[in-house]
Amino acid sequence: MNRLFTQIQDLGHVPVVPLLGYPGVYLNHTTIRENVQCAATHLATVRALHERFPADGQFCLMDLSVEAGALGLPVIFPDMDSPTVSAHPVHTLDDLAPFRGRNLLDDARLQTFVETVRGMAAELDTLVGAYVIGPFSLAGLLMGASEATLATLLSPELVHAVLRLCTDVLLPYVRALDDAGADMIAILEPSGSLLSPRLFRPFCGEYVAELVAAMRAMPILHICGRTTPLLEAMAATGAYGLSLDSAVSLPQAAERLPGDLVLIGNLDTVTVFNQLDPRGVYRAARDLIDAMAPHPNFILSSACDLPLDTPHGNIDALLEAARDART
To answer: How far apart are CA 88 and CA 145, in angstroms?
Structure first.
């Protein structure tokens, strides 16, 4: 049974879970860097977000570098931008040696995310969401995203070895987020959009499915970009929900996929949230709600993590549109 689908059936309004994170740093006058390095600051930001923008679910801040940093890759920490991995050292099987046997849970910064989720579960009266990077995207940080994609054709045995290592080190982190009380865990696979449907299943989908199978929390798969050709392969991972980018038509996706697979999204983070005023955001949200009205497996959301400078009035407009659309 898809528990995420059943969770959203009795709300009485269109479910709404914007991918809120970085806009919260302005609410408690902190920096992104402070939040992704300190659990107390991170929790305070998420608490402020939920109080200011009460939605049907709240995720912690999105950071695609935390697992790579825990593996030992170098990470750059700007004050007000996403942390980034600055080197991709794996080119051969021998290059994997320094990373074998690593336990991500030994890393202090990664533990701040576990503790943040634990605090969210204890304090917030909403569904609590956590993130984990997907195996192929972590492989892309070890190898370089373009290099990993090309290697699926030229050196598939190397890519599978890297993916095996990545999946094995991610599984304990997934279990730790479960134990911390996450209701939802979104697997972030941005590099997955670089793969064709033929390559996606063996090099991404099958490894994602291992993480999904290990979760007690409700699994969500998020892939940025033009993923329409990948929809069936994404669904085959066993995820309860697919978080889709604005390049995907949600009504068309709903026609192709099982009726209890929850579709999450997908208002553009730039052209809608950062370029329109609240009235425009409200109208765009209502248009999407109307288009998805025949499909009860829908959660209104942003197409991806909302940027730092998203106007707060535009987030209010999204929530208002969902509340006004009674089910």
So the answer is: 9
